[in-house]
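Example record for the data management plan.
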Amino acid sequence: MSANQDSTLRERVVGRAVMVTGASSGIGEALANRLGDAGAKVLLVARSSDKLDEMRQGIEARGGTAFVYAADLSDAADTERLIVTVLAEHGQVDILVNNAGISIRRSVQKSYDRVHDFERTLSLNFLGAVRLIMGFLPGMRAQKQGQILNVSTIGVQVNVPRYGAYIASKAALDAFSRVLAVEALKDGIKVTTVYMPLVKTPMMKSTTIYDAFPMRTPEQAADLIVDGIIHRPKRVAIPMGNLFEFAYGIAPNAIDRVLNAAYQLYPASC
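Corresponding structural encoding:
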C-alpha cells in the first residue's frame, strides 16, 4: 500500500470504532493491524481471546488502540451479549467488517446426509453477520453515517464446484446486503461486498488441491478491504471474478460445461 493510501485510510478511520470479526488470524489479523496503525479504535472479535490479546498488545505497542471481544458469532445469545457489551462500552460502531467465516469443500452428492454442513455455515457466515448488522445498524442510522463491509468470495461469481454450502451462505449475505443498501441509502450507510479471491490463510490448510493456484497473502487480501473502506464502493472484486460473472450472464450453459470439466478433473479429496 502506498503512503498516499495509508494517509487516506487514516483520514477515513482515525478515532472511529471499527469492528473486525475473525480477527485472530489470516485476513482479519492483517486488516486489524492495518487499521490499528491507521489510528482506528479497533474492536477485535474472534472465538478465543488469547491471540486477540497478543494482537491488542502489538497494536498498542505501535501507538494504536484496540479492544478484545471473545465471542462465538454462530451462537445467537453470545452474539447478542457481544453487541450489548460493545454498545455499552463504545456507544456505537462506525465501521463493521464481517470477515469471520468457515468453509467446507464437499460436493452436493457427498452431502446428502450432511445438511448440518449447510446449517453451520449459514449460522456463522450469514446469520452471524446479519445479527451484528441488526445490532449496530440503528446506531449508524442515528448518526447518519456508517459502513458495513461483508467479506464474500469469488466463488459467488464463479459458482465453484464442491463449495455449495459455503457459497450459498455468502450468496445469502450478498442478497441481504443489496436489499439493505437500498433501504439505508438515505441514512448515510454504505454497504460494501468484497468478493475475495483465493487467499493463503489457515482456513485453506485443510485443502491442498489449490496449492498450485496463485493465491494472495492475507496482507494483499486486506488491501482489497482497505480499498473498500477508502472508496466505499458497492463491491470490490478482481477482474477474473467480474469476467466469470459477466460470461455466466451471457452464456451460462457454456460456463457450466467448463466448470463441470474442472469438477470432473480435480479430485474430491484434498
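Summary line stored alongside the record: The chain has a mean pLDDT of 90.
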